[in-house]
Amino acid sequence: MTHPGELLSAFLDGELDHRERNQVTEHLGTCSSCADELNGLHFARAAVRSLPLLEAPPGLTPAEDQTARVRTFTRRPPVWVAAAAAAILAFFVGIATILAPPTTLEVRLDQLSDQYGARTSLEPAITPRPPVPVLDRVSGPIE
Amino acid sequence: MKRSLIVAALTITALVGQAVPALATDLGTYLERAEASEYSGEVFVVCDTPDGTVGQFVEVARSGGELWVRTSGSEAVSADGALYQRAANGTVEAIRIDSSADWRMSSKYTAVDAGQARELERPVQVVTVMDGDIERVTLHFDEATGALLRSEVRNEDRSLYCSSSFVSFSEERPLIDTSVLQATPEAIEVVDFKDIDEAALPARVAGFNRLDVYEGPESSTIAYYSDGVFSFTVIASQRTVTIPELEDAPVAEIGGKEYQRLFQPGQVVYAWESRVGGYALIGDLPIDLQEAVLGDLPAPGRPGFFARLWRSWFG
Amino acid sequence: MPDVAPLSWEEVARAYGRKIYNFAYRLTGNADDASDLTQEVLLRVRKGLAGYQPGSFEGWLWRITRNAFLDEVRRRKRRPSAPLPDEIDRVSTHASPAPDQVLSTVRLGEDIQAALLDLPYDFREAVVLCDIVGLSYEEISAAVAAPIGTVRSRIHRGRKMLKERLQ
User: Fold this and answer.
1) Is the CB of A48 less than 8 angstroms away from the CB of C132?
2) B12, B165, B267, B285: which has the fewest C-beta neighbours closer than 10 Å?
3) Is residue A109 part of a domain?
4) If we measure between CA atoms, which residue out of A50, A9, A43, B92 comes closest to residue C113?
5) What's the CATH architecture for B23-170?
6) Beta carbons of A124 and B103 less than 8 Å apart
7) Residue of chain B nearest A85, judged by CA positions
8) What's the rounded mean pLDDT across residues B19-30?
9) Which B-chain residues 166-225 have CB contacts (< 8 A) with chain A?
C-alpha cells in the first residue's frame, strides 16, 4: 500500500476493518516515515486524553421544581387590547398611520454578501467574481 | 492534376459549408481539477455595468482545499464550506452553511472544448459554456495546474458583462495564514420547505431552481437559487428591507418599475418593496438574466392593505 | 407518537452533564462560557426529549449538544463584533521554552488546552468529540453532519497540528 496518510489516525482509533488494519501494519513494518508519523499522532492523542475530566461546577443542572408563576391582575387593560382596539378603529376609519410607523429590516451589505459567498463557495467557481467575498469592497465606478 | 484539384476544392467547400460539430466536454472534470489546484497570484475582476465600470484587484492563494483572498487590508478564507472574514481592525466573523443541495448544471447549458490559448505566457485549455447559441461563459484552464486563469461572462446581446483574470500567477504552493480559522463559525441551517410562501419565493424563477431556504433575521426568509452556472440569494420579508449601502446608488428602471441597485465587481445587489413585502437580491447574473429574474418575482409596488396592517401590528 | 426516551431528563443531566461541560470547556477554554453553554444545552435536551425518536441515544444526544453549542455561540455573538478575547490572549501562550526546560517532555494541561484552541474550529471539535467525549467516527459523523471521511481527515489534521505545537 502507498503511505496510508489519514488512515493512520483511523488505525490508531481502531476504526479500520481487519483487512485495512493488516495492510497498515505491514506498511508500518517497512516505512520509517510512517512509523514516525504514527508516533506523532499517538503523542497528540495521548496529550488530549491526558487532560483531566473536569468536575462540572455545582448547580449546573436547573432546579427540579419550577415554581408556578403567580399571575397578577391589574385594573389597566393589557397592551394588546389597546392596540387591537386602535387597529379596528383604523380599519373603519382608514387611517393606518395613527399606529406606530412600520419598522424596517436593515441588512448590511457585507452580511448579505457573506451568506451568498458562503453558499456559493460550496459550488464550483465558474463565474467571474472574487473567489471569496471580502469586506470593504473598494471601488465605485471607474471613471 | 485537374481532377485532384477539383477533389481538393470540393473537400474544402464541404468543410467550410458545414459547422464543425463542437466537442461537448465534461465541465465537471475541469472544475474538480481547478478546486484541487494550488497557486497564488493576483486577480482583477471587472464588470461593465449600466452604472459604469467597476473593478477590483484581489490577492488570492489556494492550497489544500483552502482559499484565501485579500483586498485593501481585509482578508477572507474559505474552507470546508465555511467563510471566515477578518476586517482591517482585526475582528473576525465566520459563517458556515450546514448542508446544501448538490451542484447540477441546467440542461440548457452545454460545455464545449474551444481549443488552446495562452494566458500569462501559459498554455490554457478554453472551455465555453453555451446557452443556446450564446457563448455565456468562457473559461481558460491552466494546462499545468488546472487553475481557472480567466473567466468571462456575456450578456444576451453578446456584450461582455464581467471578466476575472489573473494578472500574476505562481504555481508554487503558498503558505496560507490559517489563524483566522480559529473563530467559531455561525452555523446557518437549511429550514423545511413546507413553511415557504410560494408566492413570495417561488420554487422556480426564470429558469432557476430554488435550492436551499434559510431562516433570515427578524422572521424573514432567505432562499438560494441556482441553474448550475449562475446563482442568487433572495431575502423576503414582511417588513421593508433596507441596505444602507444602496441608499446613494442610482435607481434602476427595469420592466417599467424602479429598484435600488448596486453593482460590485462580480455581483449585483437589488432592493425593492413589493405588494407582499420587502426584498433584497444578490447574485452573479448577467444583465438580461437579472431582468428575467426580477420579472418573475413580485414587482415593486406599494404594500397592500393587509401587509401594511400586519406591519403596524407587528412591525 | 414518539417512543419514550430511555432516560428521564434528570438522569441524562446526571449521566452526561459532566461530559457536556467538558465538551464546552475544551472547545472554548473558558469556564464561565462552558457553564453557560452547558446550561443552555441541557435545557435544549430537556425540550428535545419529548420528541426523541428511537435510534442511537448517544448519537442523538451529541447531535443536539453540538448544535445547541453552536447556536448559543452564535446567539451570543449577535452584538457588534469585538475581537474574540481568546484570540488576543493566545498570542502570549507560545513563548519559546528556555534552554533548560527543553529537556522536559511533560506538558502541562494548560499547554495542551492552548494548543487545542489554536486549531481551526472544525478540527478542534472533531478531536474533542473523539478523544475527550470518546465518540466513534460514526457517532461523530452523525453529530456534526459530515461524512466519515471528512471526520477522519479533521481528526488527522488536528492531531498533526497539535503535535507540531506540543513537540
Assistant:
1) yes
2) B12
3) no
4) A50
5) Clam (2.50)
6) yes
7) B313
8) 71
9) 188, 212, 214, 217-218, 220, 222, 224
Domains of chain C: 1-80 (1.10.1740.10), 105-167 (1.10.10.10)
Separation in Å, CA of C1 to nearest CA in chain A: 26
- Sign of the Cα pseudo-torsion (A93, A97, A100, A101, in order): positive
Is residue C121 within 8 angstroms of chain B, CB to CB? Answer: yes
DSSP A3: -
Q: Does A56 touch chain B (CB under 8 A)?
A: no
Give B51's contacts in chain A (Cβ within 8 Å). Answer: 141
Q: Would you state the pLDDT for residue A61?
A: 60
Q: What is the pLDDT of residues C90-143, one digit of tens each?
A: 333 333 444 333 334 445 788 899 999 999 888 999 999 999 998 889 889 988
Domains: count for chain A: 1
Of C82, C84, C121, nearest to B181 by CB-CB distance is C121
CA distance B190 to A115: 12
d(CA B293, CA A94): 35
Q: Is residue A21 part of a domain?
A: yes
**Contact list, A82 vs chain B (CB under 8 Å):** none
DSSP E strands in B72-220: the ranges are 74-79, 82-86, 92-98, 109-119, 122-131, 134-142, 148-154, 160-170, 186-189, 204-205, 208-215
For residue B56, the 8-state DSSP code is E
Q: At the top level of CATH, which class does the domain B190-314 belong to?
A: alpha beta
* Of B175 and C151, more confident: C151
Query: Span B67-71, mean pLDDT?
Result: 87
The pLDDT, as a whole number, for residue A53 is: 86
Cα distance between residue A115 and residue B282, in whole Å = 10
In chain B, where the domains are located:
23-170, 190-314
**The three three-digit cell numbers of residue B187, written as one number:** 452555523
Subunits close to B (at least 3 CB pairs below 8 A): A, C
Contact B71 A91 (CB under 8 A): no
* Phi, then psi, of B235 in degrees rounded to 5: -105, 130
Query: What is the distance between the alpha carbons of residues C62 and C143, in angstroms, rounded to a whole number?
Result: 6
Q: How many angstroms separate the CA atoms of A54 and A60, rounded?
A: 13
Q: Residue C115 is placed in which grid cell?
A: 494548543
Q: How far apart are CA B246 and CA B262, in angstroms?
A: 6
Question: Do A51 and C107 count as a contact with CB atoms less than 8 A apart?
Answer: no
Q: Which residue has the higher pLDDT, B99 or C2?
A: B99
ipTM of the complex: 0.85
Express each pLDDT in B236-287 by its tens digit.
998 899 999 999 888 999 989 999 999 999 999 999 999 889 999 999 999 9
Q: Which domain holds residue A34?
A: 7-49
Residue A12 lies in a domain: yes
Most confident range (mean pLDDT) of B2-11, B84-93, B158-167, B298-307 is B158-167
- Tell me if A126 and B43 make a contact (CB, 8 A cut-off): no
Instruction: Please report residues of B whose CB lies closer than 8 A to that of C26.
Output: none
B267-294: string of b/e by CB count within 10 Å (b at 16+)?
bbbbbbbbebbbbbbbbbbbbebbbbbb
